[in-house]
Amino acid sequence: MPVTIKDVARAAGVSVSTVSRALAGPELVSPATRERVQRAAAELGYQPNRAARGLITGRTGNIGLIVPDLANPFFPGVVKGMQARAREADFAVFVADTDEDPAVEVALVRQLAKQVDGMVIASPRMSEDELRAAATETPLVLLNRRVGRIPSVTVDNVDGMRQAVAHLVALGHRRIGYVEGPRTSWANRERLRGLRAAISATADGGADVELTVLGSFLPQFEGGVAAADLAVAAGVTAVIAYNDLVALGLLNRFVARGIDVPGQISVIGCDDIVAAAMVHPPLTSIALPKEQTGRAGVDLLLALLKNSGRSAVSTRRELPAHLMVRRSTGPAPTAPAPTDLP
Amino acid sequence: MPVTIKDVARAAGVSVSTVSRALAGPELVSPATRERVQRAAAELGYQPNRAARGLITGRTGNIGLIVPDLANPFFPGVVKGMQARAREADFAVFVADTDEDPAVEVALVRQLAKQVDGMVIASPRMSEDELRAAATETPLVLLNRRVGRIPSVTVDNVDGMRQAVAHLVALGHRRIGYVEGPRTSWANRERLRGLRAAISATADGGADVELTVLGSFLPQFEGGVAAADLAVAAGVTAVIAYNDLVALGLLNRFVARGIDVPGQISVIGCDDIVAAAMVHPPLTSIALPKEQTGRAGVDLLLALLKNSGRSAVSTRRELPAHLMVRRSTGPAPTAPAPTDLP
DNA sequence: TTGAAAGCGATACCAT
DNA sequence: ATGGTATCGCTTTCAA
Predict the structure, then answer these.
(1) Which residues in A lie closer than 8 A to residue B51 (C-beta atoms)?
(2) Whole-model pTM?
(3) Which candidate among A40, A172, B77, B83 keeps its CA 20 to 30 Å from the CA of B21?
């Protein structure tokens, strides 16, 4: 039999209204009664019933999080960040996995919407229209995607690609391949855009770099395995993959075919999942701030909830990406000796 | 403005009680009214408010899941299985991560308990007493651990180890090392027990196998890296690790030191995480049925909830483990040639 | 078979 | 500053 607000009221010798006030806004009651109430509550181990509170306030104290695939090591990091931040704000987090299926995603949003005050969708796979529709039904924050004025947290993919290209070009690479992920992935499009921008900027700088786009492939290990042979056939000296899982697949296939990395070909991934540092050779990767992305997502959502009703605050946060150089990238096989460089 | 039961009642021309009945137990109302009510509900898109329902029924429709570390690829599999099963039963899942900290675990259980009908704790790190206490506060199911009569889903670790040892012995290994995980881990103790049993059984069979226990180490990549040198110094020809993350650490360090796997030393992990097949050489691992474990956990919990109040049903399920042989295990370096075998 | 009404636990408004 | 009370949306007696 859980202790209710009545029990506390009786114990403190006040009315339930007073208890409610003493606990919610300490400045609404006299210091003396506040003291008594708080002690009584503590002694009885009183915990407000969230369902009852939600019934009248219209708030559940829950937020939802939807991710495409928990098995992709990128997302647990995001989940951790979200939970940490949500807990600080006294919110609980529902997590749901869509198995990369846009239809499941749409269904889950609708189902979850009733049970939460708002939700965060990480790397949404559904269409822009569907997202816009969802945003009208429930406060919504997007991670790794921008759609209209829906609040979002993104990473500077374009700059990440700039760093990767600069690194490769400095190593003497002139023929670079990119292994595409899902076309429905906003990040994929952004990365491709960043890549093209970086390469044309390089052209202005004098170096003549050629980009070969391969794909699209599954954003998983298997996708990389499949892409590896195409990369070799394309004659590139370096490959940048949509994400680390794909890069790991590339690495694996190259090793299996006896192709030396980075001796014959360099590989760069994206996300910097833990496994990137665990393979041999360790994978150079564009690190995205996973936990920070999660935290920022909750931050935006909380801001949204506070302003709910008032003029739609549309907020965006863009986080920086950082290239983690490891041993999977090295000098281009046909690169001129350092002394020959201009 | 969400549609409530009143709206449905008005639309169907009946009282709210009738609506409630028509939707809950169709046999409680006349077929005609049931039909009308259901159509009205469908047309209005009525979704019962779970908070309101929970207030009176005392049920939230939520279940909680606590895991030590979402970043350990073993757990996302479990989470996926749980969610799938929970969704079938129309339950939502709260997920919380403890960062392997027993204290956090205890705190989370207490906090979550108020918001759920029951909870599942995967690989609990807290003490038996704490678990027993938790079990009295809320319906509880344990994954990968057995404590008293608390319902649990476990994997047959002992048999898994038997398979691993049999595999190694067949390859000619006689000096085997085990890298321990956390001493607070039930699975660790079970695996050690299974290992010892398998080895003494082998002794009865004539082969004289020696076990060297190393550790304990962090159940992570870094733990394996640290353990690798000890394994080499101990002169074992094969190492079995507490889990795949540790095994990957071993593998990595062996390669870094120029020690050939499996030429000079064989490595076996546990869990069969996806990364196991992604490294080079691919890791032989004892596969645990991750999703099935999650599903079974929810099954047990649902059964518990149904019987709540009645005599404590204590149930256990034990799932089988399967050795996945890959290239990280091979003949022992000093093994006699196949023709010399008896 | 159906309707009216009493709560579930908390908050918020209206008095005092 | 505090108490009484209506109320949130729903389920569940109790009568009819």
Answers:
(1) 50-52, 54-55, 60
(2) 0.88
(3) B83
